[in-house]
Amino acid sequence: MPTITKYEKFKFWTDWTLLSLGIITLSYIISLIAVLLVQGAFGFGQMDWGTPLSNTLSQIAGGTIIGLGTGIYQKSLLRKVFNISSHWIYTLIIGFVISELIAGIILWQLGLDREKLRFIENKPLPETLIFAFAGLSTGFLQWIILRRFFFRSGYWVISSTLGWGICILINILWFVPFIKNSFLAVVMVFLLGTLLYGVITGATLMWIMQRKE
Questions:
Q1: Of 69, 123, 193, 202, which has fewest CB within 10 angstroms of its CB?
Q2: How many domains does the chain have?
Q3: pTM, whole model, 2 decimals?
Q4: Of 53, 170, 32, 69, the residue nearest 105 (C-alpha)
Q5: What are the start-end ranges of the H helices in the chain?
Q6: pLDDT tens digit string along 4-52?
Q7: DSSP code of 170?
């Protein structure tokens, strides 16, 4: 990795944070469409909760979209810093697929409906755990890549877990009085969550970016 100036580091962090805000939000919106399409393939409409199988497969499809969108922008930025392959994108997709698959199996055994345990259904805590586990799985897979280039790369696993978890957990703030539980609250708080993800993970990358000798 070539030596980068403080300005270049700050620009990387700024780009990373702003793209997290924009791309993750867009990817999540598209993922909701993917969930509806998969549920529709099973014969369920927008107001139906579906079955454990349709729920799991639809959430896997949604997670794939989020992982793909996130992976593409992250790879485009990281390639400016070190030689990174498309495996980075795959780690995000795999991490979300594994998380949703495990969540689907556990919820099926518990008799719980995944569709009802989403932050857009006013239940951010269960989905926080799912996203945090996706961050953990993804972070571990990405650590395997980062450790070849940087010292302290193990901290990326923690950062990825916290970043994705906080991205969803922050939606508990829907109750704030001046916006109440409105569509405006949903949008504003989720945007804040993606912004915090970018801030946390971007700052961590800046800290661990020290090439191994």
A1: 123
A2: 1
A3: 0.89
A4: 53
A5: 6-19, 25-41, 52-78, 87-110, 124-146, 155-169, 183-208
A6: 677 778 899 999 999 999 999 999 999 999 999 999 999 988 777 788 8
A7: G
Q: Evaluate whether residue 117 is within a structural domain.
A: yes
- Is 133 a domain residue? yes
Residues 6+ apart with CB under 8 A from 107: 52, 55, 113, 114, 117
Quick one: pLDDT at residue 1? 47
- Please answer whether residues 56 and 100 qualify as being in contact, where contact means their C-beta atoms are separated by less than 8 angstroms: yes
Please calculate the CA angle 100-24-81 and round it to the nearest 5 degrees. 105
| 179 part of a folded domain | yes
pLDDT at 47: 76
HSE toward the beta carbon, residue 71, CA cutoff 13 A: 24
Please give the Cα distance from 171 to 89 (Å, whole number): 26
Do the Cβ atoms of 145 and 91 come closer than 8 Å? yes
Instruction: Please say whether the beta carbons of 69 and 26 come within 8 A.
Output: yes
pLDDT tens per residue, range 104-137: 999 999 988 887 777 766 778 888 999 999 999 9
71 vs 58: CA distance, rounded Å: 20
Cα(82)–Cα(96) distance, rounded to whole angstroms?
25
Dist. CA 20–CA 72, nearest whole Å = 11
Domain assignment present for residue 1? The answer is no
For residue 85, give its domain range: 6-208
